[in-house]
Fold this sequence. Notes:
Chitinase A, domain 3, four-stranded antiparallel beta sheet
Amino acid sequence: MKITKNKVVALAYVLKLDDGIVVDASDENQPLMYLHGHQNIIPGLENELENLEQGDKKEVKVAPEDGYGVRHEELVQSAPKDRFPEGSTFTLGDEISAQDPDGLVRHGRITEVNPDEVVVDFNHMLAGQTLNFFVTVGEIRDASQTEIAQGQVQVESSCCSSEKCCD
Length: 167
């Protein structure tokens, strides 16, 4: 069976940056399960997996534009410490959430701590990076109607033997 739209795919992978640092991985015993053609994984990887079969191995290089996007320096922002809740602590690398003027919650990382302000980078941590995937395709199966309707793989409960779940 080939990987095409509406197939559930088990994928073992290693993700490295150009400098060789491994930033994520799964293995054949605990693969990533995703629904192909529903934007459950980054587009540059999903496009390269099309028509592969179980057991296929492939190296995929994904440009930033087809991965987590390019870096936007305007998403690196400083904020006075007094705008944070009283008692807040600021440690380099800590993840924080903030609401923008439109009410959208943004997630960022503290990249600098100064006496009166904190600098937060709201870019995805892999934005601007070329991603190097080393993938092995595991099981491929047809998605259920529920999975197709919801656009994602359904995790089976240990007490369930059908699409109906136990109470």
